[in-house]
Amino acid sequence: MKLKDILKEGDFDDLGLKGLGSELDVDNDYDPEKDKFSMTKQLGKMLDSRGNPNPLNSVETRDGSTHQLTMDQAANLMSLLKRPPVNGSDRQEKEQFQKDISKKEGLMPFLDANDGKTMQQLYIQKYMSDTTKMAMSNRRGP
Questions:
Q1: How far is CA 136 from the centre of its chain?
Q2: Helix, strand, or coil (residue 67)
Q3: C-alpha to C-alpha distance for 31 and 49, rounded to whole angstroms
Q4: What pLDDT does residue 58 have?
Q5: Tens of pLDDT, residue by residue, the chain (142 residues)
Q6: Which one of 25, 70, 103, 132 has the fewest beta carbons within 10 angstroms of its own beta carbon?
Q7: How far apart are CA 124 and CA 74, in angstroms?
Q8: What is the three-class DSSP state of 25?
Q9: Is 68 helix (H, G, I), strand (E, B) or coil?
Q10: What's CA 8's distance to the chain center, in Å?
Q11: Cα end-to-end distance, the chain, whole Å
Q12: 22 vs 15, 29, 99, CA distance in Å?
């Protein structure tokens, strides 16, 4: 007699946990409407369209406004979004930045900036904690 003849499939699926943690198997966080306004995706599509005859030149915010961007602005915003985190608090700061620029009120100061350096300074001033600044300076070295 073989083991597969004795045991029915699924006898050990629960491992005696009686469904503990099954609520984590449901993905309730995904919202297609929210995904539509992902600034990272919109900026990525805009940057990918650079060589096209009619490149994309605008992004839409969650509050329904559409904003024209130059390719330099898009590239600078994307570099701030894609910057690797240096510590735990930096992750939270980046998430807050991403939330803020998905709305008109948070995006406009960055679009009003003249260049990438000004955008970077605005980001540092508005989002970076002293801990993150110190971690970044330690990372660069002497």
A1: 20
A2: strand
A3: 26
A4: 94
A5: 666 666 565 555 556 666 676 666 665 555 555 556 689 999 999 999 998 999 999 999 998 899 999 999 999 999 999 988 877 777 888 889 999 999 999 999 999 998 999 999 999 899 888 877 787 777 765 4
A6: 25
A7: 18
A8: helix
A9: strand
A10: 44
A11: 70
A12: 13, 15, 29
Cβ–Cβ < 8 Å for 42, 60: yes
Q: At what angle do helices 39-48 and 71-82 cross, to 10 degrees?
A: 130
Distance CA 142, CA 23 (A): 49
Structure tokens at 62: 């969650």
Q: How far apart are CA 115 and CA 103, in angstroms?
A: 20
SS3 category, 59: strand
**Cα–Cα dist 23/37, whole Å:** 27
CB of 35 closer than 8 Å to CB of 51: no
Cα angle 14, 20, 21; round to 5:
110
d(CA 74, CA 40): 10
Q: What is the pTM of this model?
A: 0.69
Please give the torsion angle defined by the CA atoms of residues 121, 41, 89 and 135, in that order, rounded to the nearest 10 degrees. -50
